[in-house]
TrEMBL record:
The gene is pup3. GO terms for cellular component: cytoplasm; nucleus; proteasome core complex, beta-subunit complex. The keyword Nucleus applies. Gene3D superfamilies: Glutamine Phosphoribosylpyrophosphate, subunit 1, domain 1. Component of the proteasome, a multicatalytic proteinase complex which is characterized by its ability to cleave peptides with Arg, Phe, Tyr, Leu, and Glu adjacent to the leaving group at neutral or slightly basic pH. The proteasome has an ATP-dependent proteolytic activity. This is Proteasome subunit beta. It comes from Grifola frondosa (Maitake).
Length: 208
């Protein structure tokens, strides 16, 4: 078994019309032994940026704090809020620093990027465990159920989805994919970020 699959877990981010969604399952396992059904994998980095961390649970805890520290340092130094694309590069460089002894995490980022006109456009990105960035205009996935997530998302996702439709698409994609993966599941958390608000919903999933 790969160390990336040791604790299980999956994350997906999707783009909508002036909104973005990010969702994760809630299972924490020790290989096939279930330990917890409410392990948080998505963390708010700012009002407009959310970070999903699927991978080794100890590294999830370590990196969550490290990114928060670097984010605070950026805010103090720059005297402004970080933009999602800049944050993605911060995540990438943090992971690349440790490339010879990497963190076993594949981060997924979702947020709303401010344009020069003052409007907000959705932004999603993912990296591998040494920080190689992957930008996308539809969806990004990571975790043990990633191959299943790709399959379901390809069939369900459409361009320019409204926030409620995006929530439904993202939630159904995640729940259906993790049902086919032994290391993910046990409920889900879905965040939909719009320019006015953030909607968080916790979903029940199969527990067998």
């Amino acid at each position: 078994m790969s160390i990336m699959e040791y604790n299980g877990g999956s994350v997906i981010a999707m783009v909508g019309k002036e909104c973005v969604a990010i969702a994760s399952d809630l299972r924490l396992g020790n290989q096939s032994l279930g330990i917890s059904s409410h392990f948080q994998k998505i963390f708010p980095m700012s009002d407009r940026i959310y970070l999903g961390l699927p991978g080794l649970a100890t590294d999830v805890t370590t990196l969550k704090e490290q990114f928060r520290l670097r984010l605070n340092m950026y805010t103090i130094k720059e005297e402004r809020e970080i933009e999602p694309e800049t944050f993605a590069h911060l995540v990438s460089s943090t992971l690349y620093e440790r490339r010879f002894g990497p963190y076993f995490i594949e981060p997924v980022m979702a947020g709303l990027q401010k344009t020069p006109s003052g409007a907000y456009k959705p932004f999603i990105a993912a990296t591998d465990l040494i920080g190689c960035l992957n930008f996308a205009k539809d969806f990004v996935v990571a975790g043990t159920a990633s191959t299943k997530l790709f399959g379901v998302a390809e069939g369900l996702w459409e361009p320019d989805l409204e926030p409620e439709d995006l929530f439904e698409t993202c939630a159904q994609t995640l729940l259906n994919a993790v049902d086919r993966d032994a290391y993910s599941g046990w409920g889900a958390e879905v965040y939909v970020v719009t320019k006015d608000k953030v909607i968080k919903r916790t979903l029940k999933g199969r527990m067998d």
